[in-house]
Amino acid sequence: MAKKSTLARDAKRIRMIEKYAEKRAELKAAGDSEGLQKLPRNSSPTRHNNRCNETGRSRAYMRRFGLSRISFREHASKGEIPGIKKASW
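and the corresponding structure tokens:
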């Protein structure tokens, strides 16, 4: 499980991205790069990390399932993910 402070920080980023999305779009359309620079850093969508819904792990995240590779493997072996089974040939 990821540290609670890391999860809280990421949640705060998501809120900030949503808060400044409209203003950011207006500044981009106007071509105002100075105005964009004055916005908070965490309001940029590129600073958001995808995280595993279960463990909060940010690395090896599988977007299609919303899980990290470790959680994905556990669920796949138990047969909890529809359409996924262990390969054998």
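(Above: one complete record from the training split.) Helices lie at 4-30, 33-38, 69-78.
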